[in-house]
Amino acid sequence: MAAAFSSAVVVALFCLLAAHGCCGCGFLPDLFCYPPPPAPTTNVPATNVPATSVPAFNSSSGGTNADDGSWIAARATWYGAPNGAGPYDNGGACGFKNVNLPPFSAMISCGNQPLFRDGKGCGSCYQIRCVAHRACSGMPETVIITDMNYYPVSRYHFDLSGTAFGRMAKYGRNDELRHAGIIDMQFKRVPCQYPGLTVTFRVQHGSNPNYLAILVEYEDGDGDAVQVDIMESRLPDRVPTGFWTPMRESWGSIWRLDRLRPLQGPFSLRVTDESGRSLVADQVIPAFWQPNAAYRSFVQFDETLPTSLVTSGANSVESGASRRLVLPMYPGPLTYLWRCVRSILAV
């Protein structure tokens, strides 16, 4: 029996190494193994993974051609309370909540269609500044698109929170600038940075076993999500199925999946940003998820990775005294290999 088990382990490790460096927790150093998946939380601590460069931004995707770092002319207005966060419910058409609190901290804006882009611009970050008015400081400030501007007054129109509008002013002249009403301004796209946070998924109110709606937030880099895919798990051992199902964009930054049969968790989620980079949060939403709960991942967009490279995180779980193998998310036959390896190790 011991000899058979040793042979099985050797075969398994050989297969894994042949599959471009897969690792087996418990056989190789813990350096190659991920921590267990997170529990639901309403306060979202995580690890800082800062963005490092401005992402590519092409006009074919509806962007602003601001990837060269140049300033672009626009106009700005403001709404809500003078020192508030825009909408009085601290929300907006992107689905983000509590934008008056960190990490948004009321530095938010509505964007007209070239900025909002039917919701795919939600979460994008821009530097803004004004130089034409006597109260303008000329210093850049960063805002996040969280809402839709339905009544633009120019090609690019930022309808800012009162806080963000006043932040463009010289010291002590915030109200003077706000009294100007519509002003000329400049903007450029910049990478989003959420120090201390990782990509987080909020299950929306009304979700049930046949309908799952998820808000995606806190993405470094592009800050937006242009596609979200979901992977269910199979019973009884709740192992990932290996098959990705595209979710539909519901509204803003909220993605949904409707099924006639009940959905089976835990759920893995794959998020693709505007630059084509993808990340995988493995089994980030547990089997017994709750509506209105936030589930943080252990992954964040890394601007140093090649476009379309898929990263994985939170890929291992504790189960009694054993730990499940961790496999990078490669396409093709690895799903079958995964099943074979699990069968071998069960000997």
Q: Give the helix/strand class.
A: alpha+beta
Strand order of the largest sheet: 1-5-2-4-3-6
Biggest sheet overview? 6 strands, mixed, barrel
Terminus-to-terminus distance: 9 Å
Low-confidence stretches: 8-67, 306-347
% residues in beta strands: 25-35%
Mean pLDDT: 75
Word description of this protein:
- The protein is of the alpha+beta class.
- Helices cover 13% and strands 27% of the residues.
- It has five helices and 20 strands.
- Strands 1-5-2-4-3-6 form a six-stranded mixed β-barrel. Strands 13-14-8-7-17 form a five-stranded antiparallel sheet, with no helix packed on it.
- Strand 7 (200-203) and strand 8 (211-217) form a beta hairpin.
- The N and C termini lie close together (9 Å).
- Residues 8-67 and 306-347 have low confidence and may be disordered.
Question: What's the layout of helices and strands?
Answer:
Blueprint: H1 2-18, E1 72-79, E2 108-111, H2 113-116, E3 125-129, E4 141-148, E5 157-161, H3 162-167, H4 174-178, E6 183-190, E7 200-203, E8 211-217, E9 227-231, E10 233-234, E11 239-240, E12 245-246, E13 248-251, E14 254-258, E15 267-272, E16 278-285, E17 294-296, E18 310-313, E19 318-319, E20 322-323, H5 334-345
Parallel strand pairs: 1-5, 2-4, 16-18
Antiparallel strand pairs: 1-6, 2-5, 3-4, 3-6, 7-8, 7-17, 8-14, 9-12, 9-15, 10-11, 13-14, 15-16, 19-20
Helix pairs in contact: 1-5
